[in-house]
Amino acid sequence: MPQNPAAETTPIDIEKIQRILPHRYPFLLVDRVLKLNAGVSITALKNVTSNEPFFQGHFPQYKVMPGVLIVEAMAQAGGILLYYSIPDAEKKIVLLSKIDEAKFRKPVVPGDQLKLEVKIIKLKNRFGHVEGKAYVDDELVAECQLIASSLDFEKMNGQQ
Cα separation of 90 and 147, whole Å? Predict the structure, then answer.
């Protein structure tokens, strides 16, 4: 983990994303970070391919990325942003606590590239409130507000 995460530069590649997020295939939904302004905002990408396992059942005749996974992609981008925005991030895990005002405006299909834009609305103590927007070809396809909480790994594992 970086000594001073706020000093990192972008873009952030998949190897570094995997050092920040605990998610792995098939649930890692951020492929690259294009721009990050610690404490403020992030722009990340998710490439949507026909090989995604969820397309086998959603839907076989007309493949549509589930809205809940678009929200999860925004949440993961927000998790990376919070990692670079909170102290001692390498000792914490960020967990999604609440989803508000989710809206889905257009289906996301194989071949699309989701551009995930997340900005911090409020960051206080253990909680971060962010606004996420997902675009395909500069067209808004989904948006929501998310609240996440950060927990110390040691406290989660019962170590004090």
Answer: 20
Q: Of 78, 135, 132, 77, whose CA–CA distance to 105 is shortest?
A: 135
What's the CA gap between 88 and 78, in Å, rounded? 17
* Beta-bridge mates of residue 116: 44, 134
CB 93 within 8 A of CB 110: no
Catalytic residues, which ones? 58
Which residues span the domain enclosing 111?
Answer: 5-156
Q: For residue 125, what is the domain's CATH number?
A: 3.10.129.10
Domain total of the chain: 1
pLDDT in tens, the chain (160 residues): 344 455 456 799 999 999 999 999 999 999 999 999 999 999 999 999 999 999 999 998 999 999 999 999 999 999 999 999 999 999 999 999 999 999 999 999 999 999 999 999 999 988 999 999 999 999 999 999 999 999 998 877 765 5
Element (H, E) at 124: strand 113-124
